[in-house]
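If you are new to this repository, start here. Below is one unmodified record pulled from the training split, so you can see the exact layout before writing a loader.
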Amino acid sequence: MDFGISFLSNNVMLPIIDLFYGIVPSYGLAIVALTLIIRFALYPLSAGSIRNMRRMRIVNPLMQKRMQEIKERHKDNPQKQQEEMVNVQKEFGNPLGGCLPLLFQMPVLLALFATLRGSPFAGVNYTVNLQILPAEQIERIQPQAFATAPQNIYITDGEHMKVAAILPGGNKLAVGENTKIQYQSEEGKPFSELMTEHPENQLTPEWTVTKGAERVNIDADGNIEALQPGDVTIQGKIPGLAAEKGFLFIQALGRIGATEPDGTIHWDIVAMVLMFGVTLYISQVLSGQNSTSGNPQQETINKITPVLFSGMFLFFPLPAGVLMYMVIGNIFQTLQTYILSREPLPEELQKIVDAQEKDAEGKGQQALPFEPKSSKKKATG
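And here is the target side for that same chain:
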């Protein structure tokens, strides 16, 4: 089901990439520009979530105290207890109130993510499912052309078009039959012809049999010979135009994985994974997620979250261009969190902060360490 992600990718993200590549011919800079434009566009929505998180961090201790008092006061009257708790939530706010802006921006961020995982930054995959049948059975089947969903392919800098993989005779073959998988544009122009118009680019399709390799033979040109009855899955791949191009310390924007089968380590990928973890941790600290009011289990979870997310990209690797976008996005989010955490608080929230800090100082503790120190100065001044 398409939630508008393809539309946003094709009609918003790719035109922005083409625009910036036309100004400065660097796909790396195009990723930077695209990420920043989207992040600035989503700034108001993200700000609402960050402000709500800050508010809930401040009021949460008082709200929990009130909730506990209600439970004790009305422990024999569940209905009254529930009513009072609802009133407290209305007074202090809903902890989930900051999630709605995040939901609104998710389609845009997913479209950005999908854009950077496709052409021109990475290879584009096509899946062709075949059914090999005995000769006597295939005679009873009416041939019907088969085509995959078309995908955007950059055939040269700034020029891309929808390309599909097709089988003119259909995807049901008789044993001994030969056919050929072809790529063509939506207008019916063969991909090979498109490539002859741009000889400077060598985008040679690749084929891999991922299921039923013993049932077919396939050569580098996509010619297929059916050998045995059964189901076959073939994955075709058109390389990304910029997949092998580097940017700054990144050797190839389309490279996937920090290591090669021979043990070679790609330190540029390792560096970006580490940068992702560090920026995620700093963002957590600034937002107060590492301040859990003495909850050791939650503190442990918050501390290992950056490690788990970073490690995930080592075991489930992403193209280098996508990692770069995620690091840039994290840096932007960290700066945004820092700026918003320095905003003056509304009067009623400042009173809660002052009261909590005064109580903590009396006990020799530190309250709300994620709040600016200026609030403490104001309280003691």
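Two things worth knowing about this chain: The longest strand covers residues 124-133. The longest helix spans residues 43-73.
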